[in-house]
């Protein structure tokens, strides 16, 4: 807000979750990761290198894991089969089961799962999410992209924000907890971000604007995506129009694909 007073056009955006998605590769030094799987897998097979990386994780790791402990780092998905044994467990829990330190567990999982281990890191406080949401300069965004539970995207384990951000705001933070009003939530989702990036004919229902419209039931809309099962559509959305064409009708996707690239004006 102080920057605004000095004439700087500044905003922020958020998604309504207390956790973020990560990869187990993030625990390795970047210079090792960038050399590829064959390099770091061979590197970690050597005892002296393994010890070096364990020390690196213990002493040099920056971020929420350090302050909150391994109980908040949850395994969301892995590449190999029979992963139900570890999915949903925290690094703390699995390290106890395997009788090793969490840092050593990371090395084991890197090798076992060929580097493909998706993590959920609980690192934020709910009260902070609400405080930020109430700020008039904060917009709402999913921090995601277009995905699908079918086809080549169906096997990817996304953060639930991809499917749940906007219904979660409307259901949990507007209807249930009354953190902000419905009108303010919609402004933060539509007109505010459209204006920020220069889409002057988007984000509002007015003459001459493109008809990008979501028809939802304010009494039932809610997110259904979870960190373990993120590819779940929300409840309470009846119809969706993109560029005036119906893409969701009676809660079901149609075959219409009217979307297009947008240019700043």
Q: Which strand order spans the largest sheet, edge to edge or round the barrel?
A: 6-7-8-9
Number of strands: 9
Alpha carbon gyration radius: 22 Å
Structural domain tally: 2
Secondary-structure-based class equals: alpha+beta
**What is the succession of H and E elements?**
HEEHHHHEHHEHEHHHEEEE
**Separation of termini?**
26 Å
Tell me the number of helical segments per DSSP (H or I, 4 or more residues long): 11
InterPro entries: Amidohydro_3, Metal-dep_hydrolase_composite, Metal_Hydrolase
GO molecular function, one term: hydrolase activity, acting on carbon-nitrogen (but not peptide) bonds
Organism: marine sediment metagenome
Protein name: Amidohydrolase 3 domain-containing protein
What does this structure look like?
It is a single chain. The protein has 265 residues and is of the alpha+beta class. It is built from eleven helices and nine strands. The strands form three sheets. It has a four-stranded antiparallel sheet with strand order 6-7-8-9, with no helix packed on it. The protein has a three-stranded antiparallel sheet with strand order 2-4-3. A hairpin with a 2-residue loop joins strand 7 and strand 8. The radius of gyration is 22 Å and the shape is elongated. The model has no long low-confidence stretch (mean pLDDT 91). GO terms for molecular function: hydrolase activity, acting on carbon-nitrogen (but not peptide) bonds. This is Amidohydrolase 3 domain-containing protein. It comes from marine sediment metagenome.
